[in-house]
Amino acid sequence: MKNTIALTMAITVGGFVHLGAQAQNLSIAMEQAWSRHPLAAASAARTDEALARMESANGLTPAPASVSLANVNDQLNANRGKQEWELEVATPLWLPGQSAARQNEATALQAEMVTRQQASRLQLAADLREAWWALAGARNAQTTAQDRLHTANALALDVQRRYKVGELARVDANLAQNEQLAAQAELVDARTAVALAEQNLQSLTGVAPPDTLPAEAGPAQTPPLEAHPLMRSANAATQLAQSRLQLAQHSSREAPTLAVRMLRSRSDLNDSYADALGIKLTVPFSSGSRVRQEDAGARAELTQADVELAQVQQRVQFALDSARREHTAAERQLAFAETRVQLNADNLALAEKSFALGESDLSTLLRARAAALEAHALRNRYQVGVSAAQSRLNQSMGVLP
What we know:
Elements lengths: L1 H13 L11 H10 L2 H4 L1 H15 L8 E8 L9 E10 L5 H67 L5 H36 L23 H21 L7 E10 L7 E9 L5 H69 L5 H35 L5
Antiparallel strand pairs: 1-2, 2-3, 3-4
Helix pairs in contact: 1-5, 1-9, 2-5, 4-5, 5-6, 5-7, 5-9, 7-8, 8-9
């Protein structure tokens, strides 16, 4: 019976096995997972795109200049040597306020890309945290199942010995063997759950899960709501929509074009070439329907961004309140579970002593042992639950691992 008590008490230690030494942490796992993310793979190209947009917005003209060359002669009809060459260099011009509006749009787009990347990292962190603590819970369940099997084996050996010497009935030996079989089945299920949880975590990080899964600490102070990556992303989207509306308002027509024309011509072979130089300014008319279309589209985008910003703010606040309540509840449940473990451990010790003295039957001992195992398993789950609740609280605050 001493072996049974010792093995049962080992369950208490088993609950801490995967929350102790920090061979690896969530921060390292986060970097491993982000290195595999599609958005991270395209981040360099996205940065080049933003820089190119900024360079274009800061240019002297909205588009590159163009060169055209034309020739007119009479070789197909009179063939008197008439020649006319025209060289034109044309460049578009910024509309009033358009250059500044384009620069604001490029800046807003760059900020929106950065904040969208941060929001994607936070979403990945949510998936990683859930997979991390799902594996921790599965491993603790496996530890509990292993301890149950160890104590079942020890109990079966003791009962079988007493059955052979006539101290216990055959039904007691059958009950002890049945407990062994149930513990073996539970351990098979637990190992399967661990394998699936490890595979899920490895699919995110690309590497085998660490042997230890340490908890993450909370921030020194709660960051402001405006610093939340989802809030920053929504704010950046609103700023981008505003900049695009301003750009549409300053782009009521196509860009005017300024051209320098150089003309070299002669009437026939007997004439010498004459040169001329001219300037041409092309100002396109404004299209009312086109202006209304672009302005309406930009206003619709801004309205949608404003509504999404309000909804994101509400969701972030609700998630934070919910995570705080969950964390508080998890800590209270752990405290209750600790008391329950102590009570059931005392009952188990009394039941084992009574069974050893022949004052109670095996069924009573098995019920006390099952209650103690359940209390330890519940306490171990709540230990993981407290750490998982802290991770969810960090997630709701927008804190990355």
